[in-house]
Amino acid sequence: MPHLSTYVGLADHSERTLADSFRAVAQGHAREADVFHTCQLLAGWSDAHRERLATVVDRYGEDEVVEPERLHADGLAEVREGAVGLLRDLQDLHVLASLVQTTWTVVAQAAQGVRDRELLEIAQDAGVETSRQITWLDTRMKAAAPQALIVGPPS
User: What does the pLDDT look like over 16-32, one tens digit per residue?
Assistant: First the structure.
């Protein structure tokens, strides 16, 4: 299992980055009540995934990975303003959530390979919730796109 710790670390760090990014978007677009409250809720889901994963980190270790932090720094260190800014921030969250989702898929496959039922359950449950995060992001981007791209700001 020489590389499982790499992906356990990637899952942990990616979830932390996703949670922090959801909170940044919530704060930056707080005037959009649904964005504020839903992003706070979804950040909590990522926090809970990390809490569950902590027991597994003790078993496999956690190699340091930098990919999610690089994405966070480049995409969501600061939120953008306005309707187009919200749309772009939601897209950035979607990219990060997709990284998290594929990471959980890979971890679930490895968990099956090593017959670790606890890790498999964590990865499957987190994968389902991450899919729900992505679904909300898809839906909210669809709602934001016409306003941002066609209507524009009020004059």
Answer: 999 999 999 999 999 99
CATH class of the structural domain 4-151: mainly alpha
Domain boundaries, given as residue ranges, for the chain:
4-151
Question: Do 38 and 136 contact (CB within 8 A), yes or no?
Answer: yes
Percentage of residues in the chain having pLDDT higher than 70:
86
